[in-house]
Amino acid sequence: MRFPRLNSGGTTYKNDAGGFSVLIYDDVPGGAGHARQLSDEVPQLIEEAYKVVVGHCGCGEETCCYGCIANYYNQVVQANLSRGAAKRILGALLTASSSGSSADNAGEDKELDCKAGVSDPVDGFELWASDDGANNEALSLAEAMRLSIRSNSSEEWIELIREMASYDPHLRWETPDKDVELSDASGDSAYATLVWRKSKVILLDEEAASDFKDAFGSAWRIVSGWSLFVVGECSAEDVMGEIYKEA
What's the N-to-C CA distance of the chain in angstroms? Predict the structure, then answer.
């Protein structure tokens, strides 16, 4: 999906169903074939777009920055843009694409339909955590977090864990269980690196993220009732903001 940005364009409009549609088009005379190319890769396009807005840029969900959806061309409306809204809409589309829904394609102009006012969190597929895995309830947050660092852990994972382990030790943070198996209704399963059961938070290292994608398909990021984070796509602040704590 590599092509010059200026050779494609997009706009939104209110459709007959009362929702909003996104129209992607070729922005050159006679067309360049990019819209047709994108129509064959809609699930991948949505998944890649979702990665941009999951929060690794560090800005708040109520705003945006040049690390996510802000750019030179939307300067005049940036005050009205929300990374969180983009995340919710793309999450809904990602779930729909995994269940067989696809964008309607006709000629060079392709539409991606989405309803306005998508609720937060987005409904996704169900996952159930097994009772297996290392129970770290007796440990402090810092001790439990450090257990997830392996000899082959990436530098990104090590840095993320160290940042999370350094959070206020005077608070009683819920401690995560390590290497917990999660299963869906079909019996497919994968192991999560860290799971906070009470807070309903899942944190995956690179290997676990790959296993989740293989086990649960393209909608693996949209888990109903859970907050799912992947190393390299989130900050320590993102994850710790979802963890249950007591003063």
Answer: 49
